[in-house]
Automatic annotation (TrEMBL):
Organism: Kwoniella bestiolae CBS 10118
Start and end residues of each Fe2OG dioxygenase domain: 219-323
Key words of the record: Iron, Metal-binding, Oxidoreductase
GO molecular function annotations of the record: metal ion binding; oxidoreductase activity
PANTHER family membership: 2-OXOGLUTARATE (2OG) AND FE(II)-DEPENDENT OXYGENASE SUPERFAMILY PROTEIN-RELATED
Family stated for the protein in its record: Belongs to the iron/ascorbate-dependent oxidoreductase family.
This protein's name: Fe2OG dioxygenase domain-containing protein
Record-linked InterPro entries: DIOX_N (IPR026992), IPNS-like_FE2OG_OXY (IPR044861), IPNS-like_sf (IPR027443), Iron_ascorbate_oxido_reductase (IPR050231), Oxoglu/Fe-dep_dioxygenase_dom (IPR005123)
Length: 391
């Protein structure tokens, strides 16, 4: 059993002191920073709740419903929660992190053989220099490097049905480390059923049939993003990962015991609440934008960032679970009374919205524009991409 202990609350203040700025829902946003007792201070979380997932697949639906209600409470009031005692075992976690450490320690040329620029959907390796170029943070910034793999209907390890016509191979793998594919495939194949069970809990929590969202998550867009953050200087003002909300239905992040912490979650008072590692293969999880829309804003896609001032290397492994690329996302429940949530949604299939946001995040990168044109050869889209006027 993981120990269900509350963690320390830490505030950090690398913002301008008055506002925190971020990107959420594809738009820039800002939040006023308020100290306790100041006008406008609101009740908001100061820690991330820990939920025991032992009963996630319990045969009795009433037992599952009880867990679903705990999850709903966290999803409504925080948007983040720790999932302890999940079906994912610690040996698998240790093996996966060992593979990631090995991959990131390869020479740059070997990692770059599997560059994201060679794939249709920006899978593969994103170097320190790529991140610096994307975020305009300067050429020598070494804030993070990452490796992405995800859903791929051309990969028989993932999908046994007939490959849809015109479907391209999505993932790319480094020739220098063939065992990376094995390690990430193994982990991914355990995360998919775990995520499906969580989706069922969210349906119960919304008062729907457990399988109500299965039809929009048949061949879900799902991805693992392995991340490596070297320790940042104490006076470095850039974040390892800028403040953002996720474009996913929900995200399940693994953090490793021996690595530095640095994940921080924004509460309603503009305070950064730390979300460090919790022992026992415990996941740090959050609601993403798509579930926020599906739930009419009942579940909140909360802004977060990474600032690794721990003094040690940090590796983390988010798993993003999103709807089918051809799904059109509409709220499946009514808005809560008094909710100020914007209920506007787009009729555009979510896969296209997803790619647009993915490419927008790389808009300063010289090669990203070419990649964007390959992926979505759509005039309007290109226009939006070039001018940066995304909705
Ligand atoms: O590194 C982490 O813990 C979180 C990274 C993250 O927020 C993301 O990949 O969207
Ligand atoms: Fe994120």
């Amino acid at each position: 059993m993981a120990s269900l202990t509350a963690q320390e609350t830490v505030y950090s203040t690398t913002d301008d002191g008055k506002y925190v700025t971020f990107r959420a829902g594809g738009k820039p946003g800002k939040r006023l920073i308020r100290q306790p007792g100041e006008p406008g201070w609101v009740e908001s979380f100061d820690r991330i709740p820990i939920i025991d997932f032992t009963n996630i697949n319990h045969p009795n639906i009433e037992v599952r419903r009880k867990l679903a209600n705990e999850l709903a409470d966290a999803a409504e009031n925080v948007g983040f929660w720790y999932a302890a005692n999940t079906p994912v075992d610690e040996t698998l976690v240790a093996k996966t992190f060992a593979a990631l450490e090995k991959f990131f320690s390869l020479p740059n040329e070997q990692k770059s053989e599997a560059s994201w620029m060679k794939t249709p959907g920006a899978r593969g390796y994103e170097s320190f220099a790529d991140v610096a170029a994307n975020e305009g943070s300067g050429n020598d910034a070494t804030l993070r490097e990452s490796f992405i793999m995800g859903d791929d209907l051309t990969d028989p390890k993932q999908y046994s049905g007939p490959v849809p016509e015109g479907m391209k191979t999505q993932n790319i793998w480094p020739a220098a480390m063939p065992e990376l594919k094995q390690a990430l495939d193994d982990y991914y194949s355990v995360l998919i059923p775990f995520a499906r069970s969580i989706l069922h809990l969210f349906c119960l929590a919304l008062g729907l049939e457990e399988n109500a969202l299965d039809k929009s998550h048949k061949n879900p867009m799902a991805a693992l993003r392995a991340l490596h953050y070297p320790p940042q200087d104490a006076n470095e003002s850039a974040a390892g990962f800028l403040a953002h909300a996720d474009f996913s239905s929900f995200t399940l992040v693994l953090q490793g015991a021996k690595y530095g912490s640095g994940l921080e979650v924004l509460n309603m008072n503009g305070q950064w609440i730390s979300a460090p590692y919790v022992p026992g293969a415990t996941f740090t999880c959050n609601v993403g934008d798509y579930l926020q829309t599906l739930s009419s804003g009942r579940f909140v896609s909360t802004v977060h960032r990474v600032v690794n001032k721990s003094g040690s290397e940090r590796y983390s492994l988010p798993f993003f679970f999103s709807p089918d690329p051809d799904a059109v996302l509409k709220p499946v429940v009514n808005k809560k009374q008094g909710s100020e949530f914007e209920t506007e949604y787009s009729e555009e299939p979510i896969g296209k919205q997803f790619m647009r946001r993915l490419m927008f995040a790389r808009r300063f990168h010289p090669t990203a524009k070419r990649l964007a044109e390959l992926q979505i050869p759509d005039k309007d889209w290109k226009y939006e991409y070039i001018t940066g006027s995304l909705p």
